[in-house]
Amino acid sequence: MAVPKLLLVEDDPALAELLEYRFANEGYAVRTTADGDEALVMASEDAPDLVILDWMIEGTSGIEVCRRLRRDKETAHVPIIMLTAREAEDDRVRGLETGADDYLTKPFSPRELLARVSAVLRRVRPALAGELIEAGDLKLDPVAHKVERRGRSLQLGPTEYRLLQFFMEHPRRVFSRGQLLDAVWGTGSEIEERTVDVHIRRLRKAIEIDKANDPIRTVRSAGYALEPA
Amino acid sequence: MAVPKLLLVEDDPALAELLEYRFANEGYAVRTTADGDEALVMASEDAPDLVILDWMIEGTSGIEVCRRLRRDKETAHVPIIMLTAREAEDDRVRGLETGADDYLTKPFSPRELLARVSAVLRRVRPALAGELIEAGDLKLDPVAHKVERRGRSLQLGPTEYRLLQFFMEHPRRVFSRGQLLDAVWGTGSEIEERTVDVHIRRLRKAIEIDKANDPIRTVRSAGYALEPA
DNA sequence: GGTGCTTTGTCTCATCCCTGTCATATTTCG
DNA sequence: CGAAATATGACAGGGATGAGACAAAGCACC
Q1: In this structure, are residues A71 and A80 in contact, taking their beta carbons and an 8 Å threshold?
Q2: Which residues of B fall within a CB distance of 8 Å from A93?
Q3: Angle at which helices B194-207 and B158-169 pack, to 10 degrees?
Q4: Fewer CB in 10 Å around end: N or C, chain B?
């Protein structure tokens, strides 16, 4: 997760190569295909963090790819940036309807695409942009996958890590158990809401440094929030 | 109440699914139906915070649904955003006349609908849009679920919190015990009206800062109102 | 493929706070 | 003053959260 994984669906070989080179240079892991069906396979095999999707591609059409990505639980949340020809105003509307997050009309500068990708990633998942997240005396390094509090490094399990990361990305905000399940466990998880309590307790225990300073606030009948000290 | 409840009335399954997904993703609780009559039933069962209403639907027509929503006391105040076909200029006028708050012509981008929904909610119920509510020396942060008075943070129980939020959303207005029960406890709660008195007292106690400044006004034989200092 | 450790979801029990109601005191108004 | 309405204090029950335990599943390592 340290390196954002991009899936580039583009059937112009020259453009594909150019972009691949630029993205690799910026520290992204890029996989490319020219074919819509193959894109779906690749996406389901190893869910990317963002999809760059040319509208006019071989095989399954762009709009269809978009739709199917949204339908699959694994990839439903993956942001999509569309590339369209300038003339196809209508496509743009349909693309946005279908769930694309942003679009770019050809021709565009690679730099602009880079910027959009970075912006979308930062919005959706700040950690993916590789930024160190800080909240109070907590520091989370998404690249190294490490957390520390007041300099002391913490030992967290996978779920605790994701839970804490989510809280640190939205400090002070109260989330219901249901919201936490959606955000941390994934939409549609069939998990008992009370289970969240247990993980909150485990997270609390894992980040405990002294009895008095618990940064996780319980809001009765509402949920939990992280209160940076 | 932290999560705004939307009712989506749309008979194009593809569009409905897409919107449902996007809204769920943005933290809304969405219920969907393709049928006008069913929409009315759903709305009366559990009043939504906002209705997105496609004009061209099966069963009762959009304009009729709109009218009936307005007629029912429970849903009379619920904002409505209409979706119309581009050609039907005439419908748009009649829709707004009938009491829709905003409209969008198809095709539209989900993002735009999101923006409108947020805008309408912010206007009608700031708390649902996550905005800080202020009333006199009281400040309520619905996102963090915190209340403070003159800078001092207050400690409220769940019901007291909801009650205060409701008052702060409608300052200076007098509400009967029955209205408060409906608004704060939920429609159809089988609770003794006198119980409201008790919670008013608890709320008064919780926000008390000195004996003289009680912002809650008792209106004999009518109810209670919040009077911002 | 087996083994042992870690993680994870659920259950149960204990605790504490919240909540609705009642009895009673106090206020308001005719 | 008397009646109605409201404020207050007390209380029992319920509901929500915290803590510990445990079996199943996942996982790394051999």
Answers
A1: no
A2: 107-109
A3: 90
A4: C
Q: Which two tokens stand for residue A86?
A: 């300038």
Burial (CB count within 10 angstroms: exposed 0-12, middle 13-18, buried 19+), residue B142: buried
Nearest beta carbon to residue B107 from set A67, A94, A223: A94
Taking CB atoms within 8 Å and a gap of at least 24, the contacts of A16-21 are: A18/A110, A19/A52, A19/A110, A19/A113
Residue A37 has which token pair? 């069906």
Q: pLDDT for B118-173, tens place per residue?
A: 888 888 888 887 789 999 999 999 999 999 999 999 999 999 999 999 999 999 99
Entry field: residues in chain B: 229
Give the whole-angstrom CA distance, residue B66 versus residue B36.
9
Amino acid at position B130, single letter: G
- A159 has pLDDT over 80: yes
Q: Is B13 on the interface with A (CB under 8 A)?
A: no
- Are the beta carbons of B103 and B92 closer than 8 angstroms? yes
B178-204 burial, b for 16+ CB within 10 Å, e for fewer? ebbbbbbbeeeeeeeeeebeebbeebe
Q: Which class for A67: exposed (0-12), middle (13-18), buried (19 or more C-beta within 10 A)?
A: middle
CA angle A48, A29, A135 (to 5 degrees): 75
Q: Is A229 on the interface with B (CB under 8 A)?
A: no
Which residue's structure tokens are 């390094």? A141
How many whole angstroms separate alpha carbon A132 and alpha carbon A143? 8
Could you please report the per-residue DSSP string of A102-132?
A: EEEEES--HHHHHHHHHHHHHHH-GGGGTPP
Winning range, highest mean pLDDT, from A90-104, A206-220, B121-135: A206-220
Residue-wise burial string across A139-175, b where 16 or more C-beta atoms lie within 10 A, e elsewhere: bbbbeeeebebeeeebebeeebbbbbbbbbbbbbbbb
